[in-house]
UniProtKB/TrEMBL annotation:
Domain Thymidylate kinase-like: 14-204
Organism from which the protein derives: Paenibacillus dendritiformis C454
Keywords for the protein's UniProt record, in alphabetical order: ATP-binding, Kinase, Nucleotide biosynthesis, Nucleotide-binding, Transferase
GO BP of this protein: dTDP biosynthetic process; dTTP biosynthetic process; dUDP biosynthetic process
Catalytic activity: dTMP + ATP = dTDP + ADP
Family statement: Belongs to the thymidylate kinase family.
Chain's role: Phosphorylation of dTMP to form dTDP in both de novo and salvage pathways of dTTP synthesis.
Protein name, entry field: Thymidylate kinase
Top-level taxon of origin: Bacteria
Residues binding ATP: G15, G16, E17, G18, A19, G20, K21, T22
Gene transcribed to yield this protein: tmk
Length: 221
């Protein structure tokens, strides 16, 4: 497995809408915290002023005409700022960083589903992330219909522009993730996200304990 140069562990959550990424990440974060581990839970705008402003531009329902390349560049810019302000300092001090979506979202959504091309989106993202890629990426895989139904069933979750895309788009996103998982088998691990929250958490613990030498045993006690 390719391990980044940082003392900490960088773990990202990926997958379609309603797959249960945020739910599972919070549960995992609680577990790590209960065990006294240094943990940072984040997502890309993450309260970082520059990234928050960029993100609100992207997700504004008024901006339906945004060009796909503009969108990809904006995501990469927001990513860069969040990475240097939030993620890298935590990795530097040895923390476990849990990040809700990262570079694979751009590759699957903009690169594959929107048809820009994964290679081209990777080119600008390589510039943005520079040296910091995730150590482990958990891919929450679920039938798009099922994920979207979960969101519909829970009205308290904010509905954003991506949630209202056509089903075909979400199916393409899933295909994009499938490709990525085949391309980066050392980094990306599939989680069967159709399972219950408890079973998903067990899958995650198994994956992490298998793939992390230092915090794995401490996490599982
Ligand atoms: N394993 C699960 N089984 C059934 N429902 C779930 C599961 N995980 C999450 N949910 C519910 O599905 C909805 C979407 O979950 P969320 O974690 O927000 O997904 P995501 O962050 O991947 O979009 C929420 O209402 C959540 O309570
Ligand atoms: Mg979420």
């Amino acid at each position: 497995m390719n391990r980044s140069n940082w003392p900490g562990w960088f773990i990202t959550m990926e997958g379609g809408e309603g797959a249960g990424k945020t739910t599972a990440m919070r549960k995992l974060a609680q577990r790590l915290e209960d065990r006294g581990l240094d943990m940072v839970m984040t997502r890309e705008p993450g309260g970082i002023a520059i990234s928050e402003q960029i993100r609100s531009l992207i997700l504004d329902p008024a901006h339906v005409s945004m060009d796909p390349r503009t969108e990809a560049l904006l995501y990469a810019a927001a990513r860069r700022q969040h990475l240097v302000e939030r993620v890298e300092p935590a990795l530097q001090r040895g923390a476990i960083v849990l990040c809700d979506r990262f570079v694979d979202s751009s590759l699957a959504y903009q690169g594959y589903a929107r048809g820009i091309g994964m290679e081209e989106v990777w080119d600008i993202n390589r510039f943005a992330v520079h040296r910091t890629m995730p150590d482990i990426t958990l891919w929450f895989d679920i039938e798009p219909e099922e994920g979207l139904e979960r969101i519909r069933a829970n009205r308290s979750r904010e509905v954003n522009r991506l949630d209202t895309e056509q089903l075909a788009f979400h199916q393409a996103v899933r295909q994009g993730y499938e490709r990525l998982a085949r391309q980066f088998p050392d980094r990306i691990v599939r989680v069967d996200a159709s399972q219950s929250e408890t079973v998903i958490q067990e899958q995650i613990i198994d994956i992490l304990s298998e793939r992390t030498q230092d915090f794995g045993p401490r996490m599982c006690k």
